UniProtKB/TrEMBL annotation, chains A, B:
The gene is ppdK. Residues 418-499 form the PEP-utilising enzyme mobile domain. Residues 148-175 form a coiled coil. Residues 17-53, 55-288, 296-347 form the Pyruvate phosphate dikinase AMP/ATP-binding domain. Belongs to the PEP-utilizing enzyme family. It comes from Enterococcus eurekensis. Its cofactor is Mg(2+). It comes from the Bacteria. It is an enzyme of class 2 (transferase). The keyword Transmembrane helix does not apply. Its EC number is 2.7.9.1. This is Pyruvate, phosphate dikinase. GO terms for molecular function: pyruvate, phosphate dikinase activity.
């Protein structure tokens, strides 16, 4: 059994898992000789034992806490009982992975009605009662779930009644406020404990429990942090940034978290506690100003900041407090940063020879890469756009959406498929679910390190903070921007890189690949083993994919090509043909269209391989449904509408997903597949004659039985040979493979491999069939599933390794039994998911294929998967 | 390498696999000293080698055939070349499993233009040319696919022209007929080979190839005979039943194949070849008559028949020919029989101590049992029914359907979901696919051993043959029954047990379980290890199931109960409720209904276990769809129709099979499941108080994730405990289990087992998901799949062992890892399929559950599965 509690100065190598990130860093800094206020850490293991069985606290943990407090009293020469040397402590959560603002913190613990008077004598009335009232408020909130707003209202009422601010209250008036706060406890059937040690016990238990609060759970789900780790609790003697004007508190990054520039970046507030900076209630000042105000402390800080960055080999996010000109470092951690900054910092650190290329590749998260290729507003359009307000550029990107003022409304609109911009005075951890679903977040208060800014950067969501000219009226769901009144649902556009908020919809374009990104991805490619292909079929998407570094096309769908006005008419003729002549005539027209399509597509991908999937959707998807459209079609076909309608009705299906589609069409209507293959090879041959090297890869979808594959492969091969003959060219190599997207295909993969040159897993359909979920219909129950924690990850975004992954693994093993070196890829949505890629690497997949914009992140993810493998 | 050819008298134990059933029996009979015409058998292995590579014939087989013919010439003292001792042979197929009429036969082989004259001199002109013209006709049909009808037409034309029957032709006129037949070959670009050995080569090759003709393949599919076995070819010197009036040919069963009575049963024709009896062209006479006509031959035959039955320990189906009073046995095999006869014979043989009980259980096929519980017409209704015609009661049962006159039409109507009665002058092997889909088969010609009768008995299809008063006009698709004209599509009813054909629809009832069946199934139960449960929920079905010997109920669905007029209204109220009050009020009504349902159900199954499945279908299945119905509903609910319509539309799903159903309803609407469980336990407690022993088994459907199961089990368990408390009874044992019907459920079976008291595989849905097939939609492509032999077995009827079976096997193994003794059953359609049951036995399933009428067959099948295991 490990120890339950460690003092910061204890020499141990337990690290983050046991002490949490904050605790481990406090220990580390103490060892480095930095001015860290004394304290100790209750381990994550204690948290887990408590959460499993709350009696653990009484039976074991309590006596260790009492012993530790006694030791802390000796170390600090302060006391929980003596009146002259008051020990006050902070109680902070700290998990192994940083979860900013998700769990609870209580400051100033140790004050009570009596001790606050001594404290007021030692310092001053305003400061002492400020601390005590903060304690009551935080304690009420954290331990007894009394909403903080209740306290604010009570304070506000008294301030109004006395017609002055709290800081100007007399001691008696301060006590009046405290009594009012204590009454709030009573109305909630609880009382504020006067005994400091009892305060500590309750606070510790509450922080343990905050591990399992809803917003912390959601945060962990989003960031793929396991639920079983627990949080450590750090008990630290208090220092006071709110001791007057030669005190203060701040948060500083050792480099710029937005740009990566190698220069201190941060903010501080004079005469404030740490919460004031983070909560965004007052707008802080830039760190440089400190140089003038408190030059000694500033110099000292700069020194420690350098020391810490060197030590941790990464940009640090440091919290400090100055108490009467004396500097204390309260916390350090690797700083969150924008993608752009992350990239700049990683490359700089390599240039400074502090990191290797491999370490740099491992340090950037694939999600960060996504931010770099986020769209920005089209400059040309911006000149005409109506600027509503300007704030701080807290997280880059550009987004348009409908205005909402609450997290609930954001979720509600999102569920209806709307894009939303969440505008708040300030955000709080309670808003997390609403923030996740928003296109952008805007706050009227708070700085670059406010809650909104930190969370938004973490998610790569566009964010503007401190937009002070906005006047938000939450009750009436409106806001004033100067003289413009905007209401819920109005369209606004947000530029997170410039900090601007615009009226209406503004078109976006994509940033050019920057050189830093190119550099990093070039390194990544060196370390990767999985290849990255793209899912694309339009010439512009194919171009984007190649530009983003796709090594080929993993899935070019052919059905989209039939939807143009002229084409869909011919397709409809094919489907509804009454005789062979009509059928063949329409098919010939489609052949011409397809030939031109494939010619352009092959040209766009140059010499890179491209897998073309034959027609997949059921026929009825190409047919009209409204009576109006049917009438038009009937006229075009020179048929009676009722007749056409009848034919259309006959083609309807109860469960189209499980219906007459994919290779089933190839079996019942071989001529359509033959036409497609003829078009593919005619184009390939044409290009070959023009000097290009084309090696077509044809993919047969929705195979469930080896006979399907055998039958279709047979007639397609005949068609290919005929085409070579007709075009009078020597046969050249080509491949015919199959999509594995049904559970049965996985189970018979060894047999399918015999008639297949390659496999490509269609994880979307495979996930649908394995779960028995229709993506079109899960909306009806998936919210219940998330709320009740029945389904934490969306299996359409991140591979369900337990079920679907097991089938894929089985299929790969079976296929390799038949054909050791067969090329096997993933072309479903999860192919581009960084959390799924290591699994694909492990089971021996050759390539993943994703949408063009996901390629840069995927290139990094495959390199990382190989490096950590 | 085995020998390619065996003479009948060669002592070998190669058996049926190598020699085919016919060849092995000919060898066996020769060894027993029976009068079998000399000959030899070309092995099935030779057939397979030939079918794989036709050059095998020239390279190897040919010389062996020549050597064998030389040996046969010596044995018979006849010759293929000499004119005075003409050797004529028959060439017959003979596979390991009997496939009556499916493959080809050629008789009289060895005749040619010249040899027929010598033959005419040795016998007589009419006989010789009859033989020769038959040879030409059969050879043309079998070797060159020249339709037999062409020959008949030529013969008919000449008979008309000469105004006499062929048997009365002069030799010159006979030769004229032969020349006309030979011209038919020429018009088909082939010629009839004059060299007997060449005839033999071509005939042998043609018989080999007939293994793969369409009707043989279909037959094998129906009877689950593997396609890779091949057929042997038997070359036997001819004897002639058509040598005049002291010659003849017949087919005799050693016991009655309809009733099992221990008495010779058969037919013969004087002056005829075997084909005449089987083809049903002339109506033959009962075997007893032979006693008077040819008493010596008859006595001899009776002797051999007894010998053969003793030898084979089973009822024999014997073909014989008498040539100028000399008896030859041409073939014997275990006779096909009705279920009733099979049962009687098996029980008699046990009584005669020729079979053990085990052997008797193994001898009856489960399909035969199905026939015994086939419906018969209600006697009361029969008195008023209009009798159209009477024929031979060829295969028992009773059926009503629409009249069709061709196999094609039968298939076409069947595909439209219609029940059809196929009426033909006579059936031929080409009709097999139409016969399979018919409710009953009626022929106007042919006897009890005609093609129609044999095939129908084999399939358990009701059949009447030799209904000579029917005048069928195939062209006009009508038939005259006396003065009544019936057209295609008219409703008729057929009684296969009485041989009667009636006009219109007659209600049927089910035969009482007869004592023989009870006896056999009692023996079966002794040998079984798998239990047989029933899928049933109405009180009458539950009663039938118990009467048929179900050991419990494997699947009682609860949704059917909501469809009564009053109930569906309450269900709709629940679904469309606008407030909680309305919801609860309707739910309470449903609770009352369900309580009464479950009370009656528990009572019907007595002390046997019953698994009740909670609500499974999506909510929209309970809602109306037409505007009329919606208006009525709106009135009932006192709501606006447009509002109700809106709500209904919102509930629609794109793929309901993959939608909001099963346990997903349990998650989103826990109160409905709670209501159901409350109803189950209230009823159980009520019965318990009345002195019954009830142990409810509750099943949760469509689970794909362990959290679903955990969540639902948790709140259901709470409800159960509440119910015990409310009813003030001591808790008694009950089980909560889950249906495994999604691929993912199979993959995580180990985890699901932790929260499940039992598993029941829902193979219908599991098959749908594994293949990605919707049963509602496969109609659009399944016929193509069958035609192109892509899907041979219907995976919804017989388990797909390769895919679905693999998943089930995996799940069983995983579940047993978690809970060694957990009860696991099968409740999908394939649970009652005799071809799937051995697989379930092998992988360790505890019980199968099927519809009540399939229970007797299943009881036998599970015993057999255990005995052969």
């Amino acid at each position: 059994m490990n120890k339950l509690i460690y003092f910061f100065e204890e020499d141990n190598n337990s690290g983050k898992e046991l002490l949490g990130g904050k605790g481990a860093n406090l220990a580390e800094m103490t060892k480095l000789g930095l001015p860290v206020p004394s304290g100790f850490t209750i381990t994550t293991e204690s948290c887990i034992r408590f959460l499993n069985d709350e009696t653990f606290f009484e039976k074991e943990l309590k006596e260790h806490i009492i012993a530790s407090i006694n030791k802390l009293e000796q170390q600090t020469n302060k006391s929980f009982t003596e009146e002259n040397h008051l020990l006050l402590v902070s109680v902070r959560s700290g998990a192994a992975s940083s979860m900013p603002g998700m769990m609870d913190t209580i400051l100033n613990l140790g004050l009570n009605d009596k001790r606050v008077r001594s404290f007021a004598k030692l310092t001053n009335v305003a400061f002492a009662y400020d601390c005590y009232s903060r304690l009551l408020q935080m304690f009420g909130d954290v331990v007894y779930s009394i909403n903080k707003e209740n306290f604010n209202r009570v304070r506000h009422d008294l301030e109004k009644q006395l017609n002055k601010k709290q800081q100007d209250f007399s001691e008696e008036q301060q006590q009046q406020l405290i009594e009012a706060f204590k009454s709030l406890f009573i109305t909630h059937d609880v009382r504020f404990p006067q005994d400091p040690i009892e305060q500590l016990f309750e606070a510790t238990k509450a922080v343990f429990k905050s591990w399992n609060n809803q917003r912390a759970k959601v945060y962990r789900e989003i960031h793929h942090i396991p639920h079983h780790l627990g949080t450590a609790v750090n008990i630290q003697s208090m220092v006071f940034g709110n001791s007057g004007n030669n005190s203060g508190t701040g948060v500083v990054f050792t480099r710029n978290p937005s740009t990566g520039e190698n220069k201190l970046f941060g903010e501080f507030l004079i005469n404030a506690q740490g919460e004031d900076v983070v909560a965004g209630i007052r707008t802080p000042e830039p760190i440089e100003t400190l140089q003038n105000l408190l030059p000694t402390a500033y110099k000292e800080f700069v020194h420690y900041a350098e020391q810490l960055e060197k030590h941790y080999k990464d940009m640090q996010d440091i919290e400090f407090t100055i108490e009467n000109e004396k500097l204390f470092i309260l916390q350090t951690r690797n700083g969150k940063r924008t993608a752009k900054a992350a990239l700049q910092i990683a490359l700089d650190l390599v240039a400074e020879q502090r990191l290797t290329k491999k370490e740099a590749v491992l340090r950037i998260s694939p999600e960060a890469i996504d931010q770099l290729i986020h769209p920005i507003f089209d400059e040309k359009e911006l000149t005409n756009a109506k600027l509503l307000a300007t704030g701080l550029p807290a997280s880059p990107g550009a987004a348009t959406g409908e205005l909402v003022f609450t997290a609930e409304k954001a979720k509600e609109y999102h569920a209806l498929g709307k894009k939303v911009i969440l505008v708040r005075q300030e955000t709080s951890p309670e808003d997390i679910e609403g923030m996740v679903v928003s296109q952008a977040i805007v706050t009227s208060r708070g700085g670059m390190t406010s809650h909104a800014a930190v969370v938004a950067r973490g998610m790569g969501t566009c964010c503007v903070t401190g937009c002070e000219s906005l006047h938000i009226q939450e009750e009436s769901k409106t806001m004033m921007c100067g003289d413009i009144r905007l209401a819920e649902g109005d369209l606004v556009s947000v530029d997170g890189s410039s900090g601007c908020l615009y009226l209406g919809d503004i078109p976006t374009i994509v940033v050019e690949n920057n050189q830093n990104l190119q550099q990093l991805l070039a390194w990544a490619d060196e370390y990767a083993s999985l290849k990255v292909r793209a899912n694309a079929e339009t010439v512009s998407d194919l171009q984007t994919a190649i530009d983003f570094g796709a090594s080929g096309i993993g899935l070019a769908r052919t059905e989209h090509m039939f939807f143009g006005e002229k084409r869909v008419l011919e397709m409809r003729r094919v489907i509804l043909a009454q005789d062979n002549q009509e059928f063949e005539a329409a098919l010939t027209k489609l052949l011409e269209f397809q030939q031109e399509d494939f010619y352009q597509m092959f040209k766009a991908v140059h010499d890179k391989p491209m897998i073309i999937r034959l027609l997949d959707p059921p026929m009825h998807e190409f047919l009209p449904h409204t009576m109006n459209e049917i009438n038009t079609l009937a006229k075009q076909l020179k048929r009676r509408p009722s007749e056409v309608q009848n034919q259309i009705e006959k083609l309807q299906e109860t469960n189209p997903m499980l219906g007459h589609r994919g290779c089933r069409l190839g079996i019942t209507e071989p001529k359509i597949y033959q036409m497609q293959v003829r078009a593919i090879f005619n184009s390939a041959i044409k290009l070959m004659k023009e000097g290009f090297l084309v090696r077509p890869e044809v993919m047969i979808p929705l195979v469930s039985e080896e006979n399907e594959l055998r039958n279709i492969k047979e007639f397609l091969t005949e068609t290919v040979l005929e085409t070579f003959k007709e075009q009078q060219v020597e046969p050249f190599p080509y491949e015919i493979g199959t999509m594995i997207e049904l559970p049965r295909a996985c189970l018979i993969a060894d047999r399918l491999a015999m008639n297949s040159d390659f496999f490509s897993f269609g994880t979307n359909d495979l996930t649908q069939m394995t779960f028995g979920f229709s993506r079109d219909d899960i909306g009806k129950f998936i919210n219940s599933y998330k709320e009740k924690e029945i389904m934490v990850q969306d299996p359409f975004q991140t591979l369900d390794q337990t079920g679907v992954g097991e089938l894929i693994k089985l299929a790969v093993a079976k296929a390799r039994q038949t054909k050791e070196g067969m090329m096997i890829g993933i072309c479903g949505e999860v192919g581009g998911d960084p959390y799924s890629i290591p699994f694909f690497q492990k089971i021996g997949i050759d390539y993943i294929s994703c949408s063009p914009y996901r390629i840069p992140a995927a290139r990094l993810a495959v390199a990382q998967a190989n490096l950590i493998n």
